[in-house]
Amino acid sequence: MLHARVQDAPMTSDSAPASVLDLAPVVPVVVVSDLDDAVPMARALVAGGLPAIEVTLRTPVALDAISAIAAEVPDAVVGAGTVISARNVSESVEAGARFLVSPGWTDTLLDAMRGSGVPFLPGVSTTSEVVALLERGVREMKFFPAEAAGGTAYLKSLGAPLPQARFCPTGGITPDSAPSYLALKNVGCVGGSWMLPADAVAAKDWARVESLAREAAGLL
């Protein structure tokens, strides 16, 4: 499966990517605790070849981090993760998020994400959830928590009966396991945070982050 670089990926009229799954083989899942880290961290990830960056809404500075990256790192495609409410949706898009990722979904959350004007990946972990989303016209999803929910064996088993569904598996994926996920026909990319080790972030060693991002970008 070929993955377009961010500059070649189809874009919607409002400059949101048409598909998050086709921007890069790995989407970094970022937890920003120090707002000062947001821009240099994003620059390092983009320089390493990972332009799609999911900033999780797990810290008080997450929305400000999204705004800073959107304003100061033009080559980044910054999105919001851990989106679990309609308020999360509106605040994330207002902050500059160009895509949305949720760990799960409800009808209310799905309606909010649909109305946001940006691409979204609702989270699933069961066949019934996948079928329910397909009924609603959604074909691109987050598979979470990937390793705990059955890993590559589970996703491979979904491929035959539900070939129209495509996934971004996230949760417990490592540089060693990522290639086996990326080899599946129904996987567009994977999410992970291994290119952002805690000691490198604490030391603000952005050169190391860039190097790890480059290795991740080469997994395809």
TrEMBL record:
<dbReference type="GO" id="GO:0008675">
    <property type="term" value="F:2-dehydro-3-deoxy-phosphogluconate aldolase activity"/>
</dbReference>
<keyword id="KW-0456">Lyase</keyword>
<dbReference type="Pfam" id="PF01081">
    <property type="entry name" value="Aldolase"/>
</dbReference>
<comment type="pathway">
    <text>Carbohydrate acid metabolism; 2-dehydro-3-deoxy-D-gluconate degradation; D-glyceraldehyde 3-phosphate and pyruvate from 2-dehydro-3-deoxy-D-gluconate: step 2/2.</text>
</comment>
<comment type="subunit">
    <text>Homotrimer.</text>
</comment>
<dbReference type="InterPro" id="IPR000887">
    <property type="entry name" value="Aldlse_KDPG_KHG"/>
</dbReference>
<dbReference type="InterPro" id="IPR031338">
    <property type="entry name" value="KDPG/KHG_AS_2"/>
</dbReference>
<protein>
    <recommendedName>
        <fullName>2-dehydro-3-deoxy-phosphogluconate aldolase</fullName>
        <ecNumber>4.1.2.14</ecNumber>
    </recommendedName>
</protein>
<dbReference type="InterPro" id="IPR031337">
    <property type="entry name" value="KDPG/KHG_AS_1"/>
</dbReference>
<keyword id="KW-0704">Schiff base</keyword>
<keyword id="KW-0119">Carbohydrate metabolism</keyword>
<comment type="similarity">
    <text>Belongs to the KHG/KDPG aldolase family.</text>
</comment>
<dbReference type="InterPro" id="IPR013785">
    <property type="entry name" value="Aldolase_TIM"/>
</dbReference>
